[in-house]
């Protein structure tokens, strides 16, 4: 058996022992939303416009017990969704999860990510969350996925960041030493790990960080095992992350948590430092941010296979002719105070609220609505920057 096969077998054994994520199964659709799993919302974030089609093919690559898969089905009612995972037990749970919540239009298959080319379809959207960093060969994994992405398609990726996981890494190494040659006995590893955290002083750095950041989820054995006992993990920094991205052959669209990457929140009080940071090449800028705020535990980002056109709506005439509608991922609408796509509170002015209400009532152009309500284009652009509206260009491209 090759090293890659041995590692994959150990990963399969972990997730057959502790199917992950261990979220409860519901007899109703899951609550709320994750906008990254909503095709319209994700496409709008990446391109600035509503997609041309909603009857798309979506792949959940490394779907585990189907938590994300279930959302992908319910949030995208015209899409066909496929989920694949290495663990037979996780796929069994995923099938039951989708059956119980009425998630139809989904195919679930026990398949290695490396073998994704065995699927009949190519995909408009690929979701790969928490998987690549557990592969013995992440480059081969992302390249396999990239080959299945259609031109103009998007891939959403989540991988670990090394700086915010330093205490996790230390605890992993300590537990590996204590387990010795018994590392494949994951239940015994959980028992030993619990014992270790109980024995360490409360002031110990590993204990302090576990209680501060992870204890709520790690009371479940599956979460504890996934975090501290995983047989394969690669943690990235900006430099190694972009090496992975470059190897994919796809284009980097952007991080899906842009607020973290705004350096103004860190050094905005110093004009010289801010100016120097903004003159850096893009990747150096990102590296500076993570070095100054090393709390980041993972990267979430979008890749695309060209061509993928971006609309910035700076052309007044193009904006006037576009058709607006309410963003599909808003909580608390209609109200002047609501949660936006990223569950952040937004307080709308009376004029903004009236404009958005009109978008919901009428299928007409931005220009017509602005004329009716005395609303100007710059305020429309402000709503767009906040991801509160979707726009369809007058001439579809």
In short:
With 397 residues, the chain is of the alpha/beta class. 44% of the residues lie in helices and 15% in strands.
Topology:
Layout: H1 3-17, H2 39-47, E1 57-61, H3 67-75, E2 80-85, H4 88-101, E3 106-110, E4 123-129, H5 138-147, E5 149-160, H6 166-179, H7 186-199, H8 205-218, H9 221-228, H10 238-248, E6 251-255, H11 264-267, H12 271-278, H13 282-292, E7 298-304, H14 316-321, E8 323-326, E9 337-339, E10 345-347, H15 350-361, H16 366-373, H17 377-385, E11 389-392
Parallel strand pairs: 1-2, 1-4, 2-3, 4-5
Antiparallel strand pairs: 5-7, 6-7, 8-11, 9-10
Structure description:
It is a single chain. By secondary structure, this protein is α/β, with parallel strands linked by helices. The chain folds into three domains: 230 residues, Rossmann fold, CATH 3.40.50; 65 residues; 77 residues. 44% of the residues lie in helices and 15% in strands. It contains 17 helices and eleven strands. Helix 6 crosses helix 8 and helix 7 packs across helix 9. It is globular and about 75 Å long.
């Amino acid at each position: 058996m090759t090293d890659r096969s041995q590692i994959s077998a150990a990963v399969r054994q972990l997730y057959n022992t502790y199917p992950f994520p261990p979220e409860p199964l519901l007899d109703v659709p899951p609550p709320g939303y994750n906008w990254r799993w909503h095709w319209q919302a994700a496409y709008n974030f990446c391109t600035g416009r509503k997609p041309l089609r909603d009857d798309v093919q979506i792949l959940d690559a490394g779907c585990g017990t189907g938590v994300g898969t279930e959302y992908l089905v319910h949030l995208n009612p015209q899409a066909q969704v496929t989920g694949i995972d290495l663990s037979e037990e996780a796929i069994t749970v995923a099938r039951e999860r989708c059956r119980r919540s009425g998630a139809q239009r989904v195919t679930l298959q026990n398949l290695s990510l490396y073998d994704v080319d065995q699927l009949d379809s190519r995909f408009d959207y690929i979701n790969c969350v928490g998987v690549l960093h557990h592969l013995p060969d992440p480059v081969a994994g992302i390249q396999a996925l990239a080959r299945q992405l259609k031109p103009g398609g998007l891939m959403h990726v989540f991988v670990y960041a090394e700086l915010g996981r330093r205490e996790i890494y230390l605890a992993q190494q300590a537990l590996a030493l204590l387990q010795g040659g018994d590392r494949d006995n994951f239940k015994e590893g959980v028992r030993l790990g619990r014992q270790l955290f109980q024995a360490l002083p409360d002031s110990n750095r590993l204990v302090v960080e576990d209680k501060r950041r992870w204890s709520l989820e790690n009371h479940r054995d599956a979460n504890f095992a996934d975090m501290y006992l995983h047989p394969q993990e690669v943690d990235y920094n900006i430099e190694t992350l972009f090496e992975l991205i470059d190897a994919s052959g796809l284009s980097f669209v952007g991080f899906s948590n842009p607020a973290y990457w705004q350096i103004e929140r860190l050094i905005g009080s110093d004009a010289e430092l801010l100016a120097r940071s903004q003159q850096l090449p893009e990747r150096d800028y990102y590296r500076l941010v993570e070095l100054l705020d090393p709390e980041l535990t993972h990267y979430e980002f979008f890749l695309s296979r060209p061509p993928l056109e971006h609309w910035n709506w700076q052309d007044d005439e193009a904006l006037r002719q576009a058709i607006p509608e309410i963003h599909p991922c808003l909580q608390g609408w209609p109200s002047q105070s609501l949660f936006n796509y990223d569950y952040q509170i937004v307080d709308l002015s009376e004029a903004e609220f009236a404009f958005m209400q009109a978008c919901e009532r009428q299928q007409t152009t931005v220009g017509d609505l602005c004329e009716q309500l005395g609303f100007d284009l710059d305020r429309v652009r402000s709503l767009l920057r906040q991801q509160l509206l979707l726009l369809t260009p007058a001439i579809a491209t």
